[in-house]
Amino acid sequence: MKVRDVMSYPIATVPPETTVLEAIRLMARGKKGCVLVATDGLLKECKGILTMSQIFSRVFAEGKDPSRLSVVDIMTPAPLITIGLNASTKEAAGLMIKHKIRRLPVMENGMLVGIVTSKDLLQCVE
Questions:
Q1: What confidence score (pLDDT) does residue 42 get?
Q2: What is the DSSP string of 62-84?
Q3: Do 23 and 50 form a contact (C-beta atoms < 8 A)?
Q4: C-alpha distance from residue 88 to each of 3, 4, 108, 125 (Å)
Q5: pLDDT tens digit sequence for 38-79
Q6: What is the average pLDDT across 81-96?
Q7: How many CB atoms lie within 10 A of CB 83?
């Protein structure tokens, strides 16, 4: 099975100046576990990724105010570990294990086109 068969899209994105609180609201509305931080809607200029795990550990656990932090203050900055649209789900799982991550942005021709998560991979196992 290919990554394109299990990935999620469209991708939730925010510009770098977005507050963490605004990102949390976007994730809650879209039922997303992460957002990609990008300077343009086409995601050619991806600056990083922000996950709920990072929000909990870098904001709430430290008693910081999410309305006073921007996403760039706590995100994982680019370059990100990514995978190609036509890669196998086995390859995606291998990258996640190797790099101890749960989300892989999916690329095609230098553009971000989706995201594959560990949950996506688990759902395709029968």
A1: 54
A2: TT--TTS-BGGGTSEESSPP-EE
A3: yes
A4: 6, 9, 14, 13
A5: 887 556 678 899 999 999 999 999 999 999 999 999 999 988
A6: 95
A7: 22
Domains of the chain with CATH codes: 3-123 (3.10.580.10)
> What confidence score (pLDDT) does residue 99 get?
95
Residue 46: strand pairing partners:
38
Q: What dihedral do alpha carbons 110, 92, 30, 15 form, nearest 10°?
A: -40
* Terminal CA-CA length for the chain: 12
Q: Tell me the C-alpha distance between 90 and 2, whole Å.
A: 8
How many residues are listed for the chain in this entry?
A: 126
The amino acid occupying position 46 is C
